[in-house]
User: What shape does this take?
Amino acid sequence: MNGKNGFPGPAGPGEAEIKGDGGGRRRVRPAAGKRYAECADADTEMENRPDMQRAPRHDSQAPGMIDRSLQAQLGRQLRAIFEGIEEEPVPERFVRLLEALEAREKQR
Amino acid sequence: MNIHSGPLKQALLGLIPNLRAFAVSLCGDVERADDLVQETLLKAWNHLESFQEGTNLRAWLFTILRNTYFSDCRRRRREVEDREGKKAAELAIHPGQQGHLDMQDFRRALNLLPPDQREALVLVGAAGFSYEEAASVSGCAVGTIKSRVNRARTKLTEMLGVNTPREFGPDSSTEAIVARTAGGTRLP
Assistant: This one.
């Protein structure tokens, strides 16, 4: 459940950077040059496959430089998920749990 | 105990919706999220002496929840890696496949982020924590949080292919073909 799983997306420069860093706690990073070389191969491979050519290339956009309106859009979706759950009523199991804990506390 | 159990119970009850939202965003699974919330409430109740009164109860609970989640992840690491690997192959969303930002796609993409990046993004982008608070919840430097948030955003954009929005997405049969193609083109 981390970046090392390798997403089958297109291998642009941004992807390589993320892959190298996404490993989580273990900070053993492979030589950056090697990663980029591998990804360059993957790019070539994709160019030779007509079915992959639909994937747009992001080379013209520096990694990390995301359009503001796009960020706002992503942010709205993230908050929509979060707020959607927040608006759900508190499940009964938690009400019962807290009542049980409180009752136990009072017995002491 | 610093706080009487009555007010504590009320305070915890009031924070449950927030905790659940965090847990679901973090693990992408409502059942597992509710187990995490339950464990968090129990730990909080039983270790109340380690909570410093006057500090942020919400941040303290979030810290317990995320620590529980990540130690759980470490414990099930192998199993999770295998399963997520398959899931990633099945569910990967190809850039440009769809122009509109579908909520279902967004959920999938969020779940495919490395957990530390997803956590940072949710804390800052949805739960309303400052970078400093998020860093304290995650137990890392402020710079680390900032870079995780940036990487999460970049990664989401790549996965959702929203750099080149189109007005209409492909129809479902095209999507099925694209999905199959995606499954067979994993990077080395």
Summary: Residues 114 and 139 of chain B are 17 Å apart (CA to CA).
